[in-house]
Protein 1
Amino acid sequence: MLNTGPIDRYRGLAARESLAALGAPTAGLRKVDRGEPLFRQGDALTALYEVQLGQFKTQRSDEGGRRQVLGFHLAGDLLGLDGIVDDVHQQDAIALESAQVWTIPYGTFNEEAARSEELQHELHRIMGRELTRGQEMLLLLGTLGAEGRLAAFMLDLAQRLQARGWSAKAMLLRMSRIDIASYLGLTVETVSRNLTRLQQLAVLRIDHRDIEILDPVALERIATGSP
Amino acid sequence: MLNTGPIDRYRGLAARESLAALGAPTAGLRKVDRGEPLFRQGDALTALYEVQLGQFKTQRSDEGGRRQVLGFHLAGDLLGLDGIVDDVHQQDAIALESAQVWTIPYGTFNEEAARSEELQHELHRIMGRELTRGQEMLLLLGTLGAEGRLAAFMLDLAQRLQARGWSAKAMLLRMSRIDIASYLGLTVETVSRNLTRLQQLAVLRIDHRDIEILDPVALERIATGSP
DNA sequence: CGCGAGCTTGATGCCGATCAATGCATGTGG
DNA sequence: CCACATGCATTGATCGGCATCAAGCTCGCG
């Protein structure tokens, strides 16, 4: 593999891991069209996936049909860990745009992990990070209002995009307002209203899915719930 | 070790694991008084803990002082995994009553895990379960109202207690209303009001912290959000 | 061009937060 | 043993934020 260059750049940039970079066996690229599932809740876990290109959302539904978006995933993110409990995926992963993923067959991955202590440790850290992210999300949903949730969402997304070499200020949303609303536990209308409010406050500039952060400090303040 | 009996009973009962039972090295019992921390957010991760006796809550705070209870933990539960990302605990673990835990030193645990593939796999499953639990919690906070959240809370607790050999109907809460409120993203008053409501509906019988489930079916219906 | 999906904006109502008072149990010191 | 303080829980009154219902709006696309 001749990709030590980009990998080092990746790993130095942000809290972001690459199993493939650590010698996990990959089995080629898979393409997923916009709106199509990479895997579905209930599918057998056959592989882990590292996002190569495009963005995904993961979501979960229960018997009653209640649906909740659990996360948005950018290039470099690992997908499929949700199935590790009993080798069955607990959520859907759906492409928000045309996407490509590295496929890491689960069986061979396990064999390799059994040999490489570093690979194990890396996996643990990735799972631990997922746990932490979930807990931060719980804190957010439990303590912040609509405005704060949106501010936190924008900051998080901007930061993750920046870690991948994009601008920290301007971004193009790949997900719909509906998905954002579900992710934040709100309705579409509330999302829309608070976005325009943040625009009126000159904190954001919004043009459809084109977002610019005008006042990061104010956004931070709003996201931490200090009024 | 002569405890294969109880261990088999444990493992057969419910979705519940025991690292100690799988040969993870333990280093004795530790006692924690009511209200005292087993570890604190920011502490270095030195060990994992398996609850032996009593109950714990885990909680997380951020800079702004916002606090959120993330979980309640019964005998048999594993504590400390939150620190695996960077060997620093991300949350507090506080005893709700006088408690005892098995201490599993992290260093020796890692050595053992490097040797035992089964131990690794078990750890992955436990972490995966934690991930799933967090996602279910997100779904709950994102889609259910106060009444549904309380119903789901009661059902979950009853089920976990039942898995440990207690009654499925009657239970004695170890946590305060304040903790419950924080856990569910509500205020104490709302918790109190909805508890009395559930009592008026003859779904629960409530005597301070003594709870009896009178109508499990109705409780289930309320917890799934079907009005 | 016309249709539909996604987004915005407005009017109304309800649920849960907030503020406030009281009850009740436990603990503590005079 | 009583007086008082303190923490926890319930109940009531009021207010506000978000959901809900409803109507346009924009944009992309067949």
Protein 2
Amino acid sequence: MAILFSNAAEDMIRHRSARVTTARVQVLAALLKAGRALTHHEIESRLSRTHAIDRVTIYRVLEWLTRQRFAHKIPGDDRVWRFNVADEEHAGQHAHFKCNCCDRVFCLKDTGNIHSVKLPSGYRAQQLELTVKGLCAECLPGNKLHKLSANKKPPCKLANYPQALGK
Amino acid sequence: MAILFSNAAEDMIRHRSARVTTARVQVLAALLKAGRALTHHEIESRLSRTHAIDRVTIYRVLEWLTRQRFAHKIPGDDRVWRFNVADEEHAGQHAHFKCNCCDRVFCLKDTGNIHSVKLPSGYRAQQLELTVKGLCAECLPGNKLHKLSANKKPPCKLANYPQALGK
DNA sequence: CTCTAAATGCAATAGAGTTGCATAACACGG
DNA sequence: CCGTGTTATGCAACTCTATTGCATTTAGAG
């Protein structure tokens, strides 16, 4: 299972004819496996079980992956970068969903036409960043997925604010 | 001139029947006068000329203004909060423009229908944050406004990258 | 196998933002 | 106009994410 992501990561890096190092492979594999945006901290703790890699190296690898367009960097409202595997088709137009409850960030595929925003004259748009905040399927009460599984961040910080959860 | 903004700020705070302090009045006045989103640092340096206020107090006043809905807090890609005078009509739907060159942030009025973004089933949207990045009227070359005026941040960090400026 | 450029690990640093606590001041009642 | 209690402020110390400098290690080409 996990080995498959490592292989995929290794291939991706090798095809870019870049140096294949364990740090690069493992960080990229972690992102591929996660399927959602991860913080530096999340990556570090995931790798610590099997391949302990220095904090700074992880920062540098993430920066490298971003420059190579293997990943993209998402600014958050908690001053923490999150990194997601880059999606070729949505280059320059990123839409993300951040759960107000568990803080996890997901990429949104169907972004609609957010290009409809009009700029004042003389302004030129180059990139778009859209963040939708709300409640994810696991945190929305009444949803059968509402049990948090292993790699989730408990407890729900909104648990004490029923109003915020729509009750 | 500046005194007008102070008066306006004072009125706004007094009408909320909250304690009118110089820190609150001056910070709010600075935001009103700026007409764009300011960082904590920008506010601090503006006030230092006339009314020196402690860093921490400014942080606390900004937090208070945000809670009172006098201002709203904009997350940036440089891990720095920016604060803008709150706009009643666009509550919960914020669109901002950030210049890649001078780093200034402006509120966008015409947000189009960015609600068109579709969420996966089981997800609930609560707030939207849209940031358009690009070049503002003063940084876009060929524009007659291209001379940076006094309160701008020189030099343009993109000056050495003609490609980024669209040349 | 050897060599060199590139990547890594460690320590120190930077910078935004936060917290604890003693002091100051706003506004209210007399 | 003056005392009084609640609230805001100033200062110092601290937290946390992220960055930088430098010596050491390593990937991969020859």
Protein 3
Amino acid sequence: MAENENNALRQRLLDGLERIATVLREDSRRGAAPFGLNVAQDSILRLLRTRPSGLRIRALAGQLGVRQPTITDSVNALERKGLVARHADPSDSRATIVKAAPHALPERARVRSAVAAALEDLSSAECAGLLRTLIKLIRGLQLRNAIPPQRMCVTCKYFRPNVYPDGDAPHYCALVNAPFGDRALRLDCPEHEEAGPAEAAQSWQIFQSRAHLPEARE
Amino acid sequence: MAENENNALRQRLLDGLERIATVLREDSRRGAAPFGLNVAQDSILRLLRTRPSGLRIRALAGQLGVRQPTITDSVNALERKGLVARHADPSDSRATIVKAAPHALPERARVRSAVAAALEDLSSAECAGLLRTLIKLIRGLQLRNAIPPQRMCVTCKYFRPNVYPDGDAPHYCALVNAPFGDRALRLDCPEHEEAGPAEAAQSWQIFQSRAHLPEARE
DNA sequence: CCAGAAACATAGGAGTCCTATTAATGAATC
DNA sequence: GATTCATTAATAGGACTCCTATGTTTCTGG
């Protein structure tokens, strides 16, 4: 009974997420079309923008959840358009490293996603709650090996959760030596270094010890 | 400054949602492949399952965020496989109504989505909060005409929010004459009837009057 | 009745995405 | 060092997605 109700609730959440996903995809299509790109190519390019050192074909496939030959196809298309280049990997001559071409890098004026617009309706507290929930979900996916490691604060060796439990900036980054709050938790930090098991267990506390209320001010 | 920080936060939310979307898509691929379907065909079929009276080509395109000829393509593919049938629309002989074939209807044992598994990590309160936030986002998308009308409680003429503000079942459905709580808010109710402006304004109160804390028990 | 709008289908083209396979290299073992 | 096994990517071939542009039919409002 309660079991059924819970399943129904989770099904609803899944449906809701899927509906948002549909819109994101549509927006991506609309945003990429003016540049002669499609959704897959745009995803690759956006991913490469945050990875100046490039990514292997295989890594791209893992990040985007498709098979390797699919990435080969799309990289070929992008290469033809001069938007990416293949480089040899010095450490492994079987591998290919794909980098965005310099002129593909600048952040283009993107068509505003409808989802971005809808996010404006959310209060500061709702945003922070949503971010926490998304991070928890993504971390759950990572733990289940459904996605490759993400470069999030909560899986980073430099992350110290809830060091100052009572302020607005309860967490601490040991790399940059600075406190910060939930709202600043990152999903794709360039300086990320994967935490070991002990640190990971500690980081997990961010989701357990505190109330569900994030800092909400401004 | 605070403006920048807000944009950064919303960008993170967008990134997080997109990451979930990628996984949903991958799961959909995995789940549909054993049946010889791809993502697009699976989406159409899943949509038709909740619409026994069928949908027009155009409506399918709107729901799935693609152009009409794309749907024609996919419906052709599904028709070849005998999973959907085209019917004439009695009220408009230009239109085609697509219905799922009877044997396509039974809920097939679906490959469990990795996102569904990750959702299990969420507490009851987090689930309820996420559902509320998703509903708010989807409603925002609908108001901005980014998506066609959805059949959610919060846009239904029979919905009465916060009638019993202090119990676990604060809302009321005037169609089935029953109270219910946030956790039972629907995204795709078969009995949905779009509310008029006055009722819509009232429904919106669900997002304003109460604290962010949903009922969390069990 | 007629012009314009609307609903689909068709055509043609680029590209996604898959499985299966091949080629080349790396790593481990004898 | 040679052999074997695993890994990386490219290729081939096929079904299909997704688009724009266009044509056909039907509906709707003067």
